[in-house]
Amino acid sequence: MDRIDRKILACYQNDTRRVAAAIGLEVGLSAAAVQRRIKRLRANGVIRAEVAVLDSRAVGALVTCIVLLTMASRAGPVRHLARFKRDMIRQPEIQQCYHVTGSSDLVLVVTARSMEDYGAFARRWFEENENVVRYETLVVLDRVKIGLSFAVATD
């Protein structure tokens, strides 16, 4: 990946509907050359997915919670943690799941229609799970910044 690829990614990651010709003007390439590079970046796995960012309120996800989760460290913790991570991947309420260092094992971003729905989710996945030692829920009051873009070094 060269400097021009990084410039293309810096432009493309925040608006994938932007036409290749407009990106080409910024990076000094033709539209066809930009399209070829984007295709190669997809094939190489640099561009992993192109998704629609939905308005959470419009789709009824009115509550967002950050959950700090501590798993049991007794017999078989790696197996239990691996199974729990696989389970979280399949849950539509989970927007993001991170295995982290520190006093917690996992940080989850969970969305729900209501606090009651979140409570039901927490009971099912945290309170009734014998491998979960502790969880702390932080309720989001204001979404200050949401995104998955990276600061791409272009020099």
Structure write-up:
There is one protein chain. The protein is of the alpha+beta class. It has two domains: 3-43, Arc Repressor Mutant, subunit A (Orthogonal Bundle), CATH 1.10.10; 63-139, Lrp/AsnC effector binding domain/regulation of amino acid metabolism (RAM) domain (Alpha-Beta Plaits). It has five helices and four strands. The chain has helices spanning 3-12, 20-27, 31-43, 77-90, 115-127, and strands at residues 63-71, 94-99, 106-112, 132-139. It has a four-stranded antiparallel sheet. Helix 1 crosses helix 2 (20-27) and helix 2 (20-27) packs across helix 3. The two termini are 12 Å apart.
Identify the notable features of this structure and list them briefly.
155 residues, alpha+beta, Arc Repressor Mutant, subunit A, Alpha-Beta Plaits
Largest sheet: 4 strands, antiparallel
Q: Kindly name the structural category.
A: alpha+beta
Q: How many distinct folded domains? A: 2
Q: Give the oligomeric state.
A: single chain
By DSSP (H or I, 4+ residues per run), the number of helices equals 5
CATH architecture designation of the largest domain: 2-Layer Sandwich
Mean pLDDT: 92
Helical amount among residues, as a percent range? 25-40%
Q: How much strand?
A: 15-25%
According to CATH, the homologous superfamily of the largest domain is: Lrp/AsnC effector binding domain/regulation of amino acid metabolism (RAM) domain
Strand order of the largest sheet: 2-3-1-4
The backbone outline, from C-alpha atoms, is elongated
Distance between the termini: 12 Å
In the CATH hierarchy, the third-tier topology of the largest domain is known as: Alpha-Beta Plaits
SS elements, strand count: 4
CATH class designation of the largest domain: Alpha Beta
Please mark out the parts with pLDDT under 50 across 5 or more consecutive residues, or reply none: none
Rg, alpha carbons: 20 Å
H/E element sequence: HHHEHEEHE
